[in-house]
């Protein structure tokens, strides 16, 4: 039952994001209109497969490269970890880098796993 409800909600949200009209018969205030426009713009930017193919994986590779450098206490493009001095703090710098770029996550790792990070 929940799977059906989830799929139905996904389709409703997709129709709203792909549509050009407001979501109800009532007029939305300017804040709602602006928010809906931003959401549609964001959705459409992810749906431009031609542009995504053209860009390729280079942005993701750059992020991974920066995370590795910060973890190893090296300077990354656009982010300095000069306040971090040891391996534990290298991890802190890498997580701060991700957080500064909007990554929202929680982590549950063990020390043996971290010691094998290359």
What does this structure look like?
By secondary structure, the protein is mostly helical. The protein has two domains: 2-55, no CATH class; 58-115, no CATH class. 64% of the residues lie in helices and 0% in strands. It contains six helices and no strands. The chain has helices spanning 2-18, 30-47, 49-55, 58-71, 87-100, 111-115. It starts with a helix and ends with a helix.
Biggest sheet: strands, sense, closure?
A: none
Tell me the radius of gyration. 21 Å
Q: What is the multimeric organization of the chains shown?
A: single chain
Number of helices: 6
Order of helices and strands, N to C?
A: HHHHHH
The overall strand count is 0
Helical content stands at: 55-70%
Mean pLDDT equals 77
Rough shape?
Answer: elongated
Question: Poorly predicted ranges (pLDDT <50, ≥5 residues)?
Answer: none
By secondary-structure content and strand pairing, the structural class works out as mainly alpha
Please give the alpha-carbon distance between the first and last residues.
44 Å
Domains (count)? 2
Strand % is under 5%
List the helices and strands and how they pair.
Blueprint: H1 2-18, H2 30-47, H3 49-55, H4 58-71, H5 87-100, H6 111-115
What distinguishing features does this structure have?
single chain, 118 residues, mainly alpha
What is shown here, in short?
With 118 residues, the chain is mostly helical.
């Amino acid at each position: 039952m929940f799977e059906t409800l989830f799929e139905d909600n996904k389709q409703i949200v997709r129709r709203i994001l792909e549509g050009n009209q407001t979501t109800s018969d009532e007029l939305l205030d300017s804040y709602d209109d602006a928010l809906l426009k931003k959401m549609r713009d964001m959705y459409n930017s992810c749906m431009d497969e031609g542009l995504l193919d053209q860009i390729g994986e280079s942005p993701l590779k750059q992020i991974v490269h920066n995370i590795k450098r910060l973890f190893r206490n090296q300077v990354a493009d656009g982010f300095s970890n000069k306040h971090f001095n040891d391996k534990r703090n290298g991890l802190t710098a890498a997580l701060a880098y991700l957080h500064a770029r909007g990554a929202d996550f929680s982590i549950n790792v063990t020390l043996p796993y971290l010691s094998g990070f290359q």
